[in-house]
Amino acid sequence: MRVTADRELCVGSGACEMLAPDVFEVDDDGTVHVLQDEPDDPDPVRQAAQQCPTRALSVEE
Amino acid sequence: MSVEAPIPPAEVDLATVDLSDRDWWVRPPAERHAALDRLRAERPFAFFAEPEIPGIPAGPGYHAVTRYADLEAISSQPAVFCSGRGAVSMQDVPAELHEFYGSLISMDDPRHAKIRRIVSKTFTPRMLERTLDSVRTVVDDVLARARATAEANDGAIDVVADLAAPIPLRVICDMMGVPEADRPGVLANSTIILSGGDPELIENDDPFTAFLTAGMEMAALMERLAGERLADPRDDLTTALVRSEVDGERLSHQEIASFFILLLVAGNETTRNAISQGLLTLSEWPQERARWAADPSLDRTGVEEVVRWVSPVTWMRRTATQDGEIGGHRFTAGEKFLLFYNAANRDPAVFADPQRFDVGRDPNPHVGFGSRGPHFCLGAHLARRELQVTFRAVFEQLPDLEVTGPPRRLASSFVNGLKRLPARLGGTR
Ligand code: SF4
Questions:
Q1: Where are its TM segments located (chain A) (predicted)?
Q2: Which residues fall within 8 angstroms of residue B27, CB to CB, at 6 or more apart?
Q3: Nearest by CB: B116 against A8, A27, A30
Q4: CA end-to-end span of chain B, whole Å?
Q5: Structural element, H or E, at residue B339
């Protein structure tokens, strides 16, 4: 699995960070930073992509 | 003791329902929800006229969105349904006014996103982890003071004034760096700004003047703090606001003041009402209270259920930027939609047994913090943290808390608020 973030869409809500703190972190600039492009645990990452309020995360399986 | 029947009445006459009438909103929640249920089932885009405010001409009216799916569809298409024509008032108020009181809430991207990002980092789960201890300290102190108040008053306390108001006030003022001496003023002014014009909270029955005065006083406080922080930066949100730049420019004084007001007002009122109404709800559902109190692993789902059940912010507005169709409703540019979060949160198409308060409900995709889209509540993680700490502390430190009388409800369509909730500590005598 590969995950990418569209930082133009991201509003820094931190929903992804709550679900998968090892994979996502909201940076000092207020947008998300992907810490692991190819996450070990795909479940919370899928959930994050689904729950992101601005649909800023894309997952390729 | 149960002070309000949790079971909704079977019949409600939709002809008597006017969502624009602030007095309708003081009716018991069961009655309000019975009406919203019928609207959702029979008239999912029901049309209502706008109330008059002196000095502002009434606009064309709005559609009340009550189905979860429609609300989500509107919220997730911000280009078609914008916030920039006003998100917190039914009327089209002058632009300066709605930006001043709405700040980010009444802005569209890209500016909305740029300004929001100035503070979004502060409100992430990771950052808030660091504030957990200070939230606990605040909650323990407020509960101890409530205990002392009860002891001095024959057991009586007011849940709103003694528990629900001081907790979020202290947390957000600590984060913003508002000095102790200014906090009573912050509480008073944020109450007026979100009073919905409730006559009990407004002197001389002149909501417009009271509202402007409250905004000016908050702006004056900001000016003073902004000056202090520019000279002497600290590790607080106010410093972040005054030092931030968007596209290479500092925010204007007015933008800073309105953002400051938003953070203080939103940080105060919503969590206050989630605490007071949550405690009222638990008194009406004693088995759920006992179940949650006995099991700290329910803190997460319990808080989500309180937010679903209470829906502290009742609606936000969107305005169509073009013609189109949504959920079978054809609309034209300029049409207004009020997104009724409280109605979507009891939509049987999404929630099994929606009129049941279930502290273990999971999944619970409620829209109490807003639905999909860029305006999703900035303070959601902070509110969750405050609520989880507060309810657990109440179960442990105030197990004898007992609601004794009916609440006094805020006469506002916008905020689902309580002004007073009589209770006692010390059990029955
Ligand atoms: S959930 Fe979406 S909007 Fe929120 S921080 Fe993650 S990517 Fe950004």
A1: none
A2: none
A3: A30
A4: 14
A5: strand B336-340
DSSP for B18-31? -TT-GGGGGS-HHH
Question: What ipTM was predicted for this assembly?
Answer: 0.91
B326 φψ region: left (φ > 0), alpha (ψ -120 to 50), beta (else): beta
Query: pTM for this one?
Result: 0.93
- Which residue has the CA at smallest separation from atom 2 of ligand 1? A52
Give the residue extent of every domain in chain B.
9-425
Q: In what order do the strands lie in the sheet with B45-48?
A: B45-48, B62-65, B336-340, B315-320, B81-82
Query: What angle, rounded to 10 degrees, do the helices at B253-284 and B299-310 form?
Result: 100
Cα distances (angstroms) measured from residue B62 to each of B59, B328, B338, B375: 9, 17, 7, 20
What's the pLDDT tens digit per position in B228-281? 999 999 988 899 888 888 888 888 888 888 888 888 888 888 999 999 999 999
Phi, psi dihedral angles at B284 (to 5 degrees): -85, -20
Euclidean distance between CA atoms B2 and B340, whole angstroms: 27
User: Would you say the CB of residue A12 lies under 6 angstroms from ligand 1?
Assistant: yes
Contact B113, A32 (CB under 8 A): no
Distance CA B4, CA B8 (A): 10
Q: Which fold has domain B9-425?
A: Cytochrome p450 (1.10.630)
Q: In this complex, do B125 and A18 lie within 8 Å of one another by their Cβ atoms?
A: yes
Determine which residue's CA is closest to atom 3 belonging to ligand 1.
A10
> pLDDT for B358-374, tens place per residue?
999 999 999 999 999 99
Cβ atoms of B8 and B29 closer than 8 Å: no
Quick check: B418 and B276 in contact, CB under 8 A? yes
